[in-house]
Amino acid sequence: MNKVTYQVEGMHCAACALTVEKVLTKLDGVTEASVNLINEQAYVTFEEDPVPANILKEAVAAEGYTLVEPPEKSDPILRKQQFTLTGMSCSSCAQTIEKAVNRLNSVTKANVNFATETLTVESQDNIDTAAILNTVEAAGYHAQPIISAQDQFHKDQTSKIEKLQEEKQRLGWMLLFTLPLFYIAMGPMMGLPIPGFMDPHTQPFIYVVVQFLLTTPILWLAKDIFIRGFRSLFKGHPNMDSLVAIGTTAAYLQGVFMMIYLFVQPDYAHHHDHIPLYFESAGVILTLISFGNYLENMAKGKTSQAIQALLELSPDQASRINAEGNVETVPVEAVQVGDVLLVKPGERVPLDGKITDGQTTIDESMLTGESLPVSKTVGDSVTGATFNNTGAFQFEVSRIGADTTLSQIIRMVQEAQGDKAPISRLADTISAYFVPVVIGLAIISAALWFVFTQDITFALNIFISVLIIACPCALGLATPTAMMVGTGNGAKEGILVKSGASLELMKHVDVVLLDKTGTITEGHPRVQAIEVAGHYEENLVLQWVASVEQRSQHPLGQAIVDIADERGLNLIDVADFDSETGYGVQGRIDNHIIFIGKQAYLNQKGIDVDETILSSALNFAQQGLTPIFVGIDQTFAGVLAIGDAVKASSRQAIQALKNRGIKVMMVTGDNETTAEAIAKQVGIETVYSNILPEDKVNVVKELQGQAYKVMMVGDGINDAPALTQADIGLAIGSGSDVAIESADVVLIHDQLDDVVQAIDLSHQTIRNIKQNLFWAFIYNVIGIPFAMGLFYLMGGPLLNPMIAAMAMSFSSISVLLNALRIKK
User: Which residue has the higher pLDDT, 800 or 451?
Assistant: First the structure.
């Protein structure tokens, strides 16, 4: 077996691909041929030696297409690898890892997403996984490569559930010690009774020892905070845990010092109203922060629900037909390409493939958005995770694992969630310097207050409060959480955004340039009208014409065959079939010769077209339809109007874009009459017609030269150069077309109203990010001066370290909850 790949030029729809495929398959020496409309490639398999290329090219050229060897790619391939991270506690950790990995020579770009706890590495060479793991380890954290997006997601979810359960148990134990500690410390101040054996006035040493014994287990339970915090501090890149570790350690050591002092000077309590202790501050702060982390991790989990929902669509097991013809139940992971699977009514299709036996109707709404079931029979493709409604069928598996449509969707969503939008740069820059600045402010403010008050307890209160109130976590979560929820929401609606930059840029689009075929229109021709002449009966003319056209394999001929099939007309054997490329076809049925083609073709055969129907044909042409004339023997029989129907959603979607102040234009290779007719139907005023696919990019450049932000919307096939040139390339797919490389955004549902939804999603997500950044900034702008005692200088209150801890925790949670609002 030999397999050769060729590039196919001139295709514009599925009918074209089918035509090329049929032509190649019929050639002697060709075992199998398949045409991929997305990358415009034909894969030809030969039994022995390959058929000479010139024979293949001539056969394809006869149908109006060109077969060429695919061009060599000169650009280096950009490799990408994702890693899952552990040990991070705030955005400063993310910044540390990102900087360290970016220093590696083999790395082109590295991004760390604090919300998803993932590292995405891009390189033009083979990615040195070991070097990356060692670099992350040297920075004080841990990384593991993600091999399969789905497997890793399952593993991550399991790990997160286990982690949440551990945090919940640890929090329970911390509360068990914190509640009595808080009561014992604060009770005497509020007039609440405490046991006499630990009365602070009569038994001060025991009073302090009891608090010490209650606080020490809390510190042990929160030891991870100290390990991460001091390790990062000693490595020179302090993080949020460093602030908490320094503050609570200072509070704890102050209590230990006071306990020792009371042991040496037991009379101290008799000369003071109360004993200055910060044991309860250390204990309560650590418990509040642990509680905040628990709530934060719960909220983070909700941002991944979109991917979880996609994964739940895919069954875990499949019914495989073995070599003996028996059905065996196996895990989906055990299925290989070429295996034949059985799908019963009410089951989901396990993987992608092609039906080999049976027929059914399948609900493909998860891919296409179309609620009506689609009829499937032998030879039709089926997609994994779609739902089988009625009949049982068998299919041969063509794609498994990461190659399936569902896996590609999930991968695209995960990559988008791991990417950074330009709007996040400010937060990243601030986070990089935030913690060192806060430590400096805490030291300076505490020192100044001690100089002016000579009160070490007061200065320590200021020091701890400044360290605890500061929260880079909220800054670090502001962008990625909103991005995760936004891209996840988009995926559920069939809008696959490939990067954060693309999601942000859509907000600024002011011109949407639409391809016609397959974008505004359905993308495949249909018979729109039939007019017959004289005594001819419409169904008879249609039956004869379709019988002849089934031999032609031309897309317009296929449209005639399709409508005959819809009407239930049986096709008849045709003799003496002949085709004149570019003019028409003819064939004999019984004793009648049927001529089908252009008016000039019929005139050439000595058939005059009826003036009344000629007027109708002209009217059809003005509507953007192609008239096909029919002659039977030497008499004119009628005309069929064939055209590419406008999608039901196109006009409404275009009007919605206009309502948002966006200019909408059309660019097409069709002639001016057809293009203007379609544009008029959908309400587009500016039309670029007679534009070759390779020249569409010049239209985009021309608009960009006028300072427009251009979104190019096409089918992702012939529009690749324009999709790449545009500020935003948006490809309208058709279910399995999710891997269109040239586009920034892919719409699975094949409808223009999703363009509006994509732009609205951008506005909504960026607005949410700005809200998050505002609250994160304003919280620190107010909180830090408050903790430093600036409001106290003006007669205001002094911030208690425990209140600071509570506020710090809930600042992060508020950002997460605001991001989750996008889901509504």
Answer: 451
Going by the DSSP 8-state scheme, the letter that residue 64 receives in this structure is T
- Residues annotated as catalytic are 515
pLDDT average, residue stretch 56-72: 74
Sequence-distant (6+) residues with CB within 8 A of 6 are 41, 42, 44, 53, 56, 67, 68, 69, 70
Task: Give all strands (DSSP E) within 581-662, no chain letters.
Answer: 584-589, 592-597, 626-632, 635-646
Q: Which of 52, 15, 54 is nearest to 35 (CA)?
A: 15
Tokens of 186: 């604060």
Long-range contacts of 556-564 (CB under 8 A, 24+ apart): 556/525, 556/626, 556/628, 556/642, 557/585, 557/596, 558/15, 558/18, 558/19, 558/525, 559/15, 559/524, 559/525, 559/526, 559/527, 559/642, 560/527, 560/628, 560/640, 560/642, 562/526, 562/527, 563/526, 563/527
Vertex 296: Cα angle to 779 and 420 (nearest 5): 75
- pTM (2 d.p.): 0.59
| Closest CA relative to residue 280, chosen from 227, 208, 197 | 208
Residue 75 has pLDDT above 60, yes or no: no
Q: What is the pLDDT of residues 418-456, one digit of tens each?
A: 555 566 666 666 666 777 888 889 899 999 999 988 888
Encode pLDDT of 497-549 as tens digits: 877 778 888 989 999 999 887 788 877 788 888 999 888 899 999 999 999 98
